[in-house]
Each structure stands twice: as structure tokens, then as C-alpha cells.
Design a protein that fits this description.
- There is one protein chain.
- It is built from eight helices and 15 strands.
- It has helices spanning 2-7, 22-31, 76-86, 101-107, 123-132, 134-141, 159-167, 209-218; strands at 9-15, 41-45, 63-67, 90-94, 112-122, 146-152, 174-179, 184-186, 201-203, 227-235, 244-251, 260-267, 279-291, 296-308, 316-317.
- The protein is globular.
- It has 320 residues and is α/β, with parallel strands linked by helices.
């Protein structure tokens, strides 16, 4: 394990659409001696905006830049070749905003480990992008540790509107606003869940399932030992272990094309009685444990009660 970690190539991933402020931030980062301390760095650009990099301002001449404009050239073999030729031991990657994160993960070499992910957004165009290309907006924000809204006009633009859009995608992503005057403020808007997470028993409303599912997948430990009840649809498969089924909802993040079943593992001695696509109201005690259906740890519901029921008025759960 130690040898594998020593071979990792750290990747600092910068996301956002064209002219969103990625280049400016990366330039400032590479000018900072705390980051640019002499370690050989590959600056990998997947698009070129109007702003250019100024290598003369870097404290060390250890940065090699390479541009990939054609998506076909963004592949594992080519990335390995580029890194080898550069002699770099880490990568600063400015990713193309029109390419998906799935395409990135599919082509990234196994030993390239993403250390940090930041997303940059032009506040003036964000609402338009969100309305017309929401799938790509969700794609980027969903994996980002921090989203920075550049060119934010304090007192004119509504932080709450931006906050709600980000929180509809991710509860983990931090939010920062860089104003037109150069000041940076971090989002501190309270964003409580629509149910009491501290309660010993949580009875979920139908409209709260998507939020709860995302929260339990992000922070499962805080639900360990709690009694949960909710309405969901059964997924039962003969290949599941005896006494095991899945229960959840179909969830839409941004559009019809991304609807997927989001369920948790449930254990019940009479699970063989249940049929796939049956709507049920389940109640049980949650534990976080290793399970073969997760291929690791995840929430497992020890079922106490199952009641057959009708589908909710809105059978696909959303975050709104």
C-alpha cells in the first residue's frame, strides 16, 4: 500500500466553462511559492481561453504546459506519454467545461490521483448555463470541493439563488463569491435538512427522499443506529443473498436522461415475498456496515415492518 501511494501522481483538477476564471486562479496559484516550490509540474489544458499564462512570473521554472484541444486525444495512453515527456511528478489540469466528468474518469491513468477539485463560474452567465445546460452544471459541481462564483456583484446578485442551485446538487460543496471589487466571501447561509437528523426515529416525507438519500450516502455514520421509515420501490433479484432486497426511489438530478434508481440494502427474513417494482412503506434500524452489494461499507436497513402501498403522487424523487 505504501509503495502504491508513493507512485501516485497528484492531480489538481480545475473545472468550469470557458472564461469562468480558471486560468486566472491557476496563474495565481503557480505564482505562489508555497505551491510552486520547485516540484516539476505538468500544466495540462483542455481548452484555451482569451487569458494566457505568464511563465515569467513563476518563482521556479519547473512548469511544462501541454494543450489538448481534441477530445479524442484525451486518452490514457496519450496522457501517460505527455506526463513522461514532461518529467513532471504532479498535474494541474484545466478541464474542458463541455466534456463530462465520466469521460475524465474513464481516461485518467490509474496512478493519477485527484487531490483537489475546484469549479469556477462566471456569475453573469451561471443562471443561463443552469437553465440551458443543467446536466453539465450538475456534472461539474457534484464532484467539486469548492465552487467559486467570479465577478459576483454584491448587492445586485442574490446569493440565495446561487446557493439553492448548488445545494440542489451537493450539500458537501463549499461556496465562495469573488466580488467585482476583488473581495472573497464564503457562503454561510444555513441549510438545514427538512427532517430532524438528530431524532432517534426519522419518518421521511415523500418529497424529502432525494435529499435524505444524498445525505446518507455522503455522511452515513450520522444515521447509524437510527430508526428510519419511508415509502420506496422494491428491487429484488434472485442473485441477492437470502433475506436481502433493495428499497429506494428513482431520483432525477437535473433532467429525465439522468433518472436512476437510488436505493439502500435492506435485510428482512421474508424478503422473498416481495416483487420488484412493488411500492412499500418500510421501517427499520439503520447500520453502516460492509455488504457485498456495496462492495464495501454502506447503509443497511434491518427491516422491522413492511406495508404494501401505492406509488406517491410524484413517483420520481427530485431535489426541489
Amino acid at each position: 500500500m505504501q509503495n502504491k501511494q508513493m507512485e501516485d501522481i497528484p492531480v489538481y483538477l480545475f473545472l468550469g466553462f470557458l472564461e469562468s476564471g480558471k486560468t486566472k486562479f491557476i496563474q495565481e496559484t503557480l505564482e505562489d511559492e508555497r505551491f510552486n516550490n520547485g516540484e516539476k509540474t505538468l500544466l495540462l489544458l483542455c481548452e484555451e481561453g482569451e487569458e494566457e499564462y505568464d511563465f515569467s512570473k513563476y518563482p521556479h521554472s519547473c512548469v511544462t504546459m501541454h494543450v489538448i484541444e481534441d477530445k479524442a486525444d484525451f486518452n490514457e495512453e496519450n496522457l501517460k506519454r505527455i506526463l513522461k515527456e514532461s518529467g513532471a511528478t504532479r498535474v494541474v489540469l484545466e478541464y474542458n467545461g463541455m466534456w463530462t466528468i465520466q469521460e475524465l474518469f474513464e481516461e485518467l491513468p490509474m496512478e493519477w490521483a485527484i487531490y483537489q477539485t475546484m469549479c469556477f463560474v462566471d456569475s453573469n452567465t451561471f443562471l443561463s448555463y443552469n437553465a440551458n445546460m443543467r446536466g453539465l452544471v450538475v456534472d461539474k459541481i457534484n464532484v467539486s470541493e469548492l465552487v467559486v462564483f467570479n465577478r459576483f456583484e454584491a448587492g445586485v446578485m442574490d446569493e440565495v439563488e446561487f446557493h439553492k442551485i448548488v445545494r440542489g446538487i451537493s450539500r458537501r460543496t463549499q461556496i465562495a463569491y469573488e466580488t467585482t471589487t476583488g473581495e472573497v466571501a464564503y457562503d454561510d447561509i444555513e441549510d438545514p435538512l427538512p427532517f430532524d437528523v438528530n431524532a432517534a426515529e426519522i419518518d421521511l416525507n415523500d418529497e424529502d427522499y432525494a435529499l435524505w438519500y444524498r445525505d446518507i450516502m455522503e455522511e452515513p455514520e450520522k444515521y447509524h443506529g437510527k430508526i428510519i421509515s419511508f415509502r420506496g420501490i422494491v428491487a429484488n433479484d434472485p442473485q441477492f443473498p437470502k433475506g436481502v432486497f433493495a428499497v429506494g426511489r428513482h431520483v432525477m438530478t437535473c433532467c429525465v436522461d439522468d433518472i436512476q434508481f437510488c436505493g439502500i440494502v435492506a435485510e428482512w427474513s421474508r424478503s422473498a415475498m416481495l416483487d420488484t417494482r412493488q411500492w412499500v412503506r418500510v421501517k427499520g434500524k439503520l447500520s453502516v456496515q460492509r455488504h457485498k452489494l456495496y462492495r464495501g461499507k454502506g447503509p443497511v436497513l434491518q427491516v422491522q415492518e413492511v406495508i404494501l402501498t401505492d406509488a406517491p403522487e410524484q413517483d420520481v424523487a427530485t431535489f426541489y
